[in-house]
Sequence to fold (468 residues):
Amino acid sequence: MMSEPTRLLDDPAVAEGLRADLAQAQAAVLEGLDVSAGAASLNAAIAAETTAVGTASAGAGKMVALGLAGAVTAGALVWFALRAPEPEPQVVAAPVVTDPAEPVSVSPPGPEPAALPNAAEPETTAPGIAAPVATPSVPEPELSAVDDVAPAPRKRPRTGDKQADYLREARLISDARAAMKTDASRALKLLAEARSEFPRGLLREEREALTILSLAKLGRSTQAKASAKRFLEKHAQSPYAAAVRQVLE
Amino acid sequence: MKDPASSAIHVVGPSCLPVDEHLDADALYRAHAQFVARFLMRIGASGEDVADLVQEVFLVAHRRGGFTMGRAKPTTWLAEIAFRVASDRRKKARRRLEDSNAEVVALAPAVAASASPSKKAEARQALARVQRVLDTLTPEKRAVFVLYELEGQACDAIAAALDVPVGTVYSRLHSARREFSKAHAALEGSDPQVRAPNETAVADDAKASSRTAVVGMSS
Fold:
């Protein structure tokens, strides 16, 4: 086995200036990367991605079921048309077997979950998850760290489908995170929308943290600090605690 | 929030060596996000892009099922992903231009806060010189040079991670060292005090040899 070449830093034959520069480069420290927040964001993206894959699989299953149901329906229609001239309208609707959780009508099949974009890509827009409503939104106690951020003008009720709800919540949060970099006001609107739709959402901790950071970015430091204190009282061990704590400094 | 598929995987704390054979994306991120960010910067990613690229690297790591101990180390394995992610971003150069206010990651000199201003300035200039000279290398040579000379990785681990023969690693390293030394000498020979931080002038021969390699990398 070949021995490793001597590293430039350890080679006295190499120019001193070069070695000194390499030593500086080797010792350089990284600034500006919030590992805790990044890890939380990564986990949210992974969860959203997993949900999207799960939804796609479920969607494929539903497609098969719908296809079979359609075939049965068509078969029944043909059979009845050939068998008897007298109309029996109630038979036509009978064999359609739909998933009660599936809010999309049988024909046309509606937006395919398989086509959902990855929630980790904030540029993409939310697909039409919202269609028909299975469960009306139930008012729940407000858990927000920020009380006076106006809710979004359009309140879109939850679908009742946990996966679709989670995907939408994750996308709202992801969009808010992306918007925060350039337009904190828009981020606040998206976060308010998320709060309005999913007051007890799985990503409420991230939502509250992003709200605080957006407020701070907009210069609303009094609100940001008050909310940050409340947040840290509730979530002292949160992965966002370090970022939120900076608002208080 | 964890992927249910990965929750069964044994993970270790962020700062210790793995005690098991598998690291999931979360454990990898907490342990090696800084390494990946540093590597990305050294191979030419801009500070505005780094946080986003790091996220992408670990998403790819997740899609690959996390890291299993084998021939490569987790860092070199991640470096290979980072190299590909950066190359892909290079091809889509300036795709995220709208995020110009994004979280900015930077490499800063490791000098004591009490150091004199001139000492701090010297350290910053040294970092800038190294980065400028690295910019003259092709991405492949640059990755090997950074991993070997700055990150202290072994050649066989680099070869395993990049999936190339170890001889290729030696060859790239040899060539990278020659070009690096030449470009560094040329840069040092000129007066660094008169060079603005963003000035790209380096030795003409070194610049000509690799201009195409770095276009877009720092977008």
